[in-house]
Amino acid sequence: MGGHTSNYVPTSRWGKWLDERLPIARLMQSSFVDYPTPRNLNYLWTFGGILTVCLLAQIVTGVVLAMHYQPSDAGAFNSIEHIRRDVNYGWMLRNLHSVGASMFFLAVYIHIFRGFYYGSYKAPREVLWILGVIIMLLMMATAFMGYTLPWGQMSFWGVTVITNLFSALDTIYPGLGTAIVEWLWGGYAVSGVTLNRFFALHYLLPFVLTGVVGLHIWALHVVGQNNPTGLDIKQPSDTVPMHPYATAKDSVGLFAFLILFAWFAFFVPDYLGHADNYVEANPLVTPPHIVPEWYFLPFYAILRAFTSSFLGIPLGQYAKLCGVVAMFSAVILIAFAPWLDTSRVRSAKYRPIFKWFFWFFLFTCVALGYLGSKPAEGIYVIASQIFTLCYFLFFLAVMPIVGLIETPSRLPRSITDDVLSKGGTGLPTGATAAPESR
Amino acid sequence: MSTEALEPNRRDFLVVAGNAFVAVGAASLLWPFIQQMNPDASTMALSSVEVDLSPVKEGQAITAMWRGKPIFIRNRTKAEVEAAENVDVKTLPDDNARNENLPGDEPGTDANRTIKGHENWIVLIGICTHLGCIPKGQAMGDERGEYGGWFCPCHGSVYDTSGRIRKGPAPRNLEVPTYAFTTDTKIKIG
Ligand code: HEM
Ligand code: FES
User: Fold this and answer.
1) Which residues of A touch B (CB under 8 A)?
2) ipTM above threshold 0.85
3) What integer is the mean pLDDT of A153-166?
4) In this structure, which CATH number among 3.60.10.10, 1.25.40.10, 2.102.10.10, 3.40.30.10 belongs to the domain B44-189?
5) In chain A, where the domains are located
6) Peptide bond just before A338 cis, omega within 30 deg
7) What's the rounded Cα separation, in Å, for the pair A84 and A98?
8) B58/B79 Cα distance (integer angstroms)
9) Which pTM value belongs to this model?
């Protein structure tokens, strides 16, 4: 893939036979073995590999859970208890799957913030970035429907609140929103019918996701990886072959991540969940405090920031619609970053003003996450409104304006220069030397 | 360019007609796939219930189920009825009656939300018009909000004793379902 040509040489007759018919080994070698990667990648670049492992882990644990799970109003809650208590190793598989979803989001958020800091969204990586946003949306849809499956109180009321978001369309055209919501539910309220279809989609979407991940990696290999300097690759000495350099670093990152994963899965599997979800769904009683999973909290805070007014501006009957539109735009806006940012310098390392706004943006997202977990009253509402404004201003004001007024600091001439000026060594020696000849 | 190229000819017609057939065919094939998700025949069949109101004393409330939704039925006290009647409809966030028994667009007076001769009874779909939580206020000791009606704990919507929205993010009054008194102490919902 990409401009890089393969130097795969089949070593056996069978290998040669296959190479002439389906050059899959050649494709693998050129994409994942001698693919040139920037020599200065740091650990934030290991999250792509980590995410791939997360996706595979969710699919493997999910498929086996589905062998014991019952997607029905009467059976769902009990079948989860059955998995946890009776099925051999069911407790472990279930914990790996539910903790796995959280870990998946942790990794994807780090991966996205890495992109913001090092300007990975800028030309020529726009399509790569948009595919990333699509992946995030699919992950959100998948996790949302997955969280319905245990059919506890939080599952039930989470679905009720989120599907009801579409009823906001009634303000635009009376009846439209209600029709969509009843279509999603397959009834006049959330019921076992809804659960059944969510299970079907929860099974399907990860495979769609796998397809989009394939496109994401393809796009990556066409334009090449970004790197901490944000500079383009200019000469062979700027790169090292993917294997063993990047693969070794990826493994270190992956194992550190898996230790955290295992710690959650084996010692505090329910820490990231809600006790209310161990109470079976009851359509007559709303839990006093509905909270989504932690990874949705920032967006939930934005939704709830629009009470009957926003920062003193009365919204009247449009309050609900505004909240819904703001929440969805908060995600969609990320896809427009390549065009909103006017600076031609990629890496925030060389952007003295943007750098601070980046850290403030990270703080904004964490603050919104905290506020999303608090009841919507008093000071929390005002704070949510202020941080919601900050979130949107980052995209709509900071990105375009800072790029125009900021004087970037001096960029190194090349990746190699940057590495050598920090006391890095010249070219690697030994068995894997001379990547430039590859 | 010659004029012949600009004139639509037989081939253009065949291409347009062929594409139109494909489009219509694709759309009509898609329809069953979309329609299968709408409420099915067995769900639609459960569309009316009868409720006996005789055990509900003044000041008490019961919750019935209709189409999978909770129905709030409250036997209001004189004070509650008066409070609901003495409201200037123009000052309400939603001034519509939201009563499925009326043709539509009536002002949201208490009279328009109850049935004549049974003004003490208020019957509502107990689903917050914000994002669908079940408001508190049916059970004894529940928080009822500052207007004495219902209070939705999810995002703090406050409803009055007529189920009209007074404060908070909910855009509309609680809906009054289609219902009728079959006897003095029985109603049929739906
Ligand atoms: C993108 C990948 C996936 C994500 C993010 C994801 C997320 C989730 C989440 C958040 C839950 C609820 C966990 C809980 O609180 O108990 C769940 C449950 C479930 N998922 Fe997935 N999932 C994914 C892939 C899959 C796949 C491929 C299957 C295969 C059929 C699957 C089958 C199930 C089943 C049967 C449950 C119910 C059991 C349980 O709740 O533990 N999942 N999923
Ligand atoms: S659902 Fe009732 S206030 Fe939001």
Assistant:
1) 157, 160-165, 167, 171, 182-191, 193, 197, 283-286, 288-290, 304, 306-308, 316-320, 323, 376-377
2) no
3) 92
4) 2.102.10.10
5) 42-225+240-290, 294-416
6) no
7) 12
8) 11
9) 0.88
